[in-house]
Amino acid sequence: MGNNPSRFKGDNLPVERVSWYDAVEFCNRLSRKEGLTPEYTISGKDVTWNRSADGYRLPTEVEWEYAARGGNKSRGYRFSGSDDPKEVAWYSANSGEKTHPVGQKKPNELGIYDMSGNVWEWVWDWYDSDHYSSSPASDPTGPYTGSLRVLRGGSWRSDARDLRSANRSSGGPSVSLINLGFRIVRTK
What we know:
Layout: H1 20-33, E1 40-43, E2 46-49, E3 56-57, H2 61-68, H3 85-88, E4 120-126, H4 131-134, E5 149-152, E6 168-171, E7 180-182, E8 185-186
Parallel strand pairs: 4-7
Antiparallel strand pairs: 1-2, 3-8, 4-5, 5-6
């Protein structure tokens, strides 16, 4: 991308201070670099998702939560990998007001680290406060439009309640904060 916008720089630290637009652009650039078809068509602030592409992308909100809960290996924990946030997350009680290298806490049942705490994570979906009550039961992808994008996972600044796998928040897609990053996935 040419630069690291993070306030906290170092080996294995999550990149933060990235907007949702930065995250989708990163996905496309990484896809092209690896010879994959980019997932997104970007025209200014208009971003569409080509679901038949094979590149990198942001997870949907449902994919993110399924992974955070441990997928088909879930043990029903409140946080991603434990009922004790200190075991799995960097948050307001233990972070020292900064991010930490990924993988220092216990992973969840799927072996994924830092889905609770460290940085909030952008997902693909537009935010809708009552989305779950009006979504299809199988593989919902969220509303088609909106003004806010969904954030998941909590951060180093969050209280424990914000770290729950079921917790959700939102932010304008142009927002970039010192506790806001992203995670990428590939379908194919």
